[in-house]
């Protein structure tokens, strides 16, 4: 378990170092996850210890929402002031995401079955 946690934290640190060194607009933990994906692909999948540690972390995932909930409570006034803009951005971005996903699915299914007429 310790070695799996050390791997997760070292990849997060590596992601932060890469982000700072290259001035990337991507969060360091996201870069760390990409590095983890590359390692898992090269190894052919996770080890038993890595799988067990990941499952243990996922079982307690709800604890990670406590800081986010605290942040929301601390900025309740700001949410009240900018609530309409936030809600509008959420709705529009959700609709755009659904539309793009639908278009991609439509194009991919047309490529997979070219003999069907639209």
SSE map:
Layout: H1 2-22, H2 28-43, H3 48-59, H4 65-74, H5 76-112
Helix pairs in contact: 1-2
Quick structural summary:
The protein has helices spanning 2-22, 28-43, 48-59, 65-74, 76-112.
Number of individual domains: 2
Largest sheet at a glance?
none
Our Rg estimate from Cα atoms comes to: 20 Å
Structural class: mainly alpha
State the end-to-end distance. 53 Å
Q: Percent range for helical residues?
A: over 70%
- H/E element sequence: HHHHH
The beta-strand count equals: 0
- Poorly predicted runs are none
Shape: extended
How much of the residues is beta strand, in percent? under 5%
Determine the mean pLDDT: 89
Number of helices: 5
Please, could you describe this protein's structure?
With 118 residues, this protein is mainly alpha-helical. The protein folds into 2 domains: 1-59; 70-118. Helices cover 81% and strands 0% of the residues. It is built from 5 helices and no strands. It has helices spanning 2-22, 28-43, 48-59, 65-74, 76-112. α1 (2-22) packs across α2 (28-43). The radius of gyration is 20 Å and the shape is extended. 4% of the residues are buried.
Observed structural traits:
118 residues, 2 domains
């Amino acid at each position: 378990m310790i070695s799996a946690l050390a791997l997760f934290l070292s990849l997060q640190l590596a992601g932060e170092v890469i982000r700072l060194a290259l001035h990337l607009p991507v969060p360091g933990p996201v870069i760390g996850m990409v590095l983890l994906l590359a390692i898992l692909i090269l190894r052919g999948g996770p080890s038993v210890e890595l799988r067990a540690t990941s499952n243990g972390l996922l079982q307690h995932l709800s604890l990670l929402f406590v800081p986010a909930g605290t942040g929301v409570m601390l900025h309740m006034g700001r949410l009240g002031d900018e609530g309409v803009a936030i809600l509008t951005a959420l709705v529009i971005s959700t609709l755009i995401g659904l539309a793009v996903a639908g278009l991609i699915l439509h194009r991919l299914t047309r490529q997979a079955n070219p003999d069907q007429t639209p």
